[in-house]
Amino acid sequence: MTMTKDRFGGLLFLLLCLTYGYYAGDIPMLPRDEFEPFNAQTMPNWLAGLGIFLSLLMIFSKGSSSVKNEPLLAANVGIMLGLLSFTFLLSLALPWFGFPVTTSLFLIASYRLLGERRPKMLLLSSVPFALALWLLLTQVLEVYIAPARLALW
Asked: 51, 16 in Cβ contact below 8 A?
């Protein structure tokens, strides 16, 4: 069995689901809730089980013959590592610059890494999305997002 991009993705997804399922047991429940048919741990456990099943299916499936399965060595691992590093930088910059600014910069950098070069497209595909998501979270869903520590305005 050769390691393809699909199988590698399935392995990563399997690792994520196993970790999620492990930590689902740490979700606190109300007293006597463990005997109920549906409690705070039920949905996370089912999601972890479904994810494990689907990732195993992805790992051990042969794939269709019409789709070319690229080997892992031909995969663009640099882009994957770049996106992971951008995500890490997002988590560091978020408390300092705030959600809209940091998310917009993250999306612009990610789109650039993925090959988009037009400045107008970069701005129009990132800034409105970040602002709309911020408004949805703070105004509609009433999720508290701490303001930026550094005031840019």
From this structure: yes
- For residue 4, list its beta bridge partners: 71
- The pLDDT score that the predictor gives to residue 68 is 62
Can you tell me the distance from the alpha carbon of 88 to that of 102, in angstroms, rounded to the nearest whole number?
12
Residues in the chain where the model's pLDDT stays below 50: 66
The pLDDT of residue 67: 53
50-58, Cβ contacts within 8 angstroms, sequence gap of 24 or more: 51/13, 51/14, 51/16, 51/17, 51/20, 51/21, 52/14, 52/17, 52/18, 52/21, 54/13, 55/10, 55/11, 55/13, 55/14, 55/17, 56/10, 56/14, 58/6, 58/7, 58/9, 58/10, 58/13
Q: What is the pLDDT of residues 16-27, one digit of tens each?
A: 999 999 999 898
Q: Would you state the pLDDT for residue 36?
A: 84
